[in-house]
Specification:
Elements: H1 2-8, H2 13-24, E1 30-43, E2 46-51, E3 61-66, H3 70-75, E4 81-89, E5 94-103, H4 110-123, E6 137-139, E7 144-145, E8 154-160, H5 170-185, H6 188-192, E9 194-200, H7 208-218, E10 229-233, H8 236-246, E11 250-253, E12 256-259, E13 262-266, E14 272-277, H9 283-299
Parallel strand pairs: 8-9, 9-10
Antiparallel strand pairs: 1-2, 1-4, 2-3, 4-5, 6-7, 6-10, 8-13, 11-12, 13-14
Length: 300
């Protein structure tokens, strides 16, 4: 059951791109894959599909796909079973072509409504208000910490690994966290009420010295910044606990780790306040969200 839930989690574009780059190499300009699945939702320009395995490329999962053909998009409805041609470009764009409805069992029915809950689970909306797991983590100084150590503070959590080779993925998240760190520092009262945590997806490699070196590269070599931003690793089983709680999917492929991207905002009482999927968010959005949680906490 647990494995099935992980396969249904909503992966960001990152999961698709990592697998494409790792398995196909960077010299191929475009690849085509046969896709089959059930449509769970439709929005402007895209279909969210609970797809079957694509052998040799990606496991069964639920994710949104852009559809460039407006006529095909108009004819397709939630509950439809479809086949399509998944096009993946070297430039990291992807979309569905040749969408064909092969069955409409469940269109507008209760089964479609039930399936749609997978979208809530995957997007993170179903975990809002849930308590965060309090697993032990080891930071860049070799100290064991827990998220409960920051009770009373607003905590922003994300997942990275130090050997991530793609600048628009983990390094981008860390750069945005560095920007958040600097922005919060401008308001001492808010800075004192917040904390940042970057959790490694490669605990076997990301030892405290490795994490410390990595962290310093984003703190302009000022170790004082670690008082507000921890870089941590944890045991594989505890990492899996966090992944399950936050809707994180990750797969090891030699020195590459295929994963979606989750950033989680935690309230002062240790509950999930908000979740961001992917890396399209930027510092101002998250700082505003942090400020809003702080404002609500002050009103209580």
């Amino acid at each position: 059951m647990e494995a099935t839930m992980h396969r249904r989690r909503f992966p960001a574009v990152l999961a698709l791109l990592f697998m494409f780059l790792a398995l196909e190499g960077c010299q191929i300009s475009q690849k085509h894959y046969a896709l089959r699945g059930r449509v769970l939702a439709k929005s402007a320009g895209q279909l969210t599909v609970n797809q079957q395995d694509i052998p040799g490329f990606m496991p069964a999962m639920t994710m949104p796909y852009p559809v460039k053909d407006p006529e095909a998009l108009e004819k397709t409805q939630p509950g439809d079973e479809i086949t399509a041609n998944l096009v993946v470009n070297k430039d990291m764009s992807y979309w569905l072509e040749d969408v064909v409805v092969i069955g409409s069992l469940g269109r507008g029915s209760q089964s479609t409504a039930i399936d749609t809950t997978a979208i809530e689970e995957a997007s993170g909306t179903s975990i809002i208000g849930a308590p965060v797991p309090d697993v032990p983590m080891v930071n860049q100084d070799g100290k064991t910490i827990h998220l409960s150590n920051f009770k009373g503070k607003i905590v922003l959590v994300t997942f990275i690994y130090t050997r991530c080779p793609f600048p628009t993925f983990c390094p981008l998240l860390s750069s945005e966290f560095a920007s958040i760190q600097r922005e919060l520092f401008k308001t001492p009262q808010l800075y004192q009420k917040t904390h940042l945590v970057s959790i490694s997806l490669e605990p076997a490699y990301d030892s405290p010295p490795v994490l410390r070196k990595y962290g310093l590269s984003y703190l302009h070599n000022d170790s004082a910044g670690f008082a507000h931003w921890d870089f941590v690793s944890t045991k594989p089983e505890d990492l899996q606990t966090l992944a399950t709680a936050f809707g994180l999917t990750y797969y090891e492929q030699k020195t590459l780790i295929t994963h979606n991207m989750r950033t989680v905002l935690v309230t002062p009482n240790g509950a999930v306040a908000n979740v961001w999927d992917g890396s399209e968010w930027r510092q101002p959005e998250l700082v505003d969200a942090i400020s809003q949680v702080a404002h609500e906490a002050n009103r209580r």
